[in-house]
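Write out this protein's structure.
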Amino acid sequence: MQILGSALATNPYPGAISCIWNNHDSAYGGMKHMKRTWIAIVGAGVAGSVLARLLSARNSETGQDITIYDISRSYAKPCGEVVPARLVDTIVPSLGIPRPRVLNSIRRFVLSVGSETVREYKPRSVIWYSIDKSEWVNSLRDGLNVVYKGVDPANLVNRYGVVVDARGPFSSRGRKIVVWRAYAENPGLERDMAYIIMSGRNAGLVWIFPHGDKFNVGGGFIGLNNPRDRVIRTLYDVMGTNLKLYSEAYSLVTVYPRIQYTSPRGIVRIGEAAGLIMSLGGEGIRPAVLSAAALANALELSRDHVTFHVDRYISSIRGIVEEVKLHSLMLRLASIIGDVGLKRILRNVDEEFIGAWLQGRLTSVKYLVKSLYALVRSHS
């Protein structure tokens, strides 16, 4: 039952499942065997829809009833809608689910602190794509058994063998920030260029990402409940012109998340609901896909039971968890050193560091060491 293929770089799963779950705030032991075979997934965003697609692919063989609950008939969570290219080119195809439609291949990055451009980064190959996220998630929902109503996962535990919380920031633990996003007419920028405008002391960022013929703009800051005006001022400072905006919307993003694999009642969590969100930039699509795939691979289905291999799930997402923790540490560092220190780091770190950050590969503490070294050394 190897669903993941090459999507997750982990060691082979052990044949015997040991009981280590007591260390992780859970009602589960190392393996849970359930006679009730129905599965409920609450939240039909990226994580929930991917999980439902993967499990439903086995439905004809096992006869499992898989129900997904969501409050909205059409998915439209505001975000920057950019993803690492390897998610689209490698990870998603390996799972056998539909690929998102690529709108732009991003080849250049302008990194700024405040209104000052600090660095430009040009990777040798495309490392980011701009996608139509809402279109993709709505296509993933096609053919699924979706019930459109809001439910509390805790109210489902007595009816289903497995209950999955995929509600994103609405059930995660950690600090929440408000994010504002809009689409903008192209002010004359190249459609392969992304702008990331960071703030150290106020811990936040503003983005300008290509989105087809238009641009996706937005941002958020810790402690600022309505970031719209500040984002618009920053956009003007950087672009030197007012942008024509439309389709404005708000959302929440979790920063400094607490990793929580399940709730105390045994509800399994994936994606941002589990705290799998990157604090440096708010990347959540890739962790959502990978954690959904990991859970699908940890659920063994048959006609008369469901077995949840807890250790398998934890092992599979270990790399994502380490990345999440490192992002939190580095965001705390940025908030301490302020804009001056952040500029110094961006000027001094090597290109491997920048590439690892943008590609979602900050999984080693060596990058924290590199950032500290960049902070203290003179610019060459």
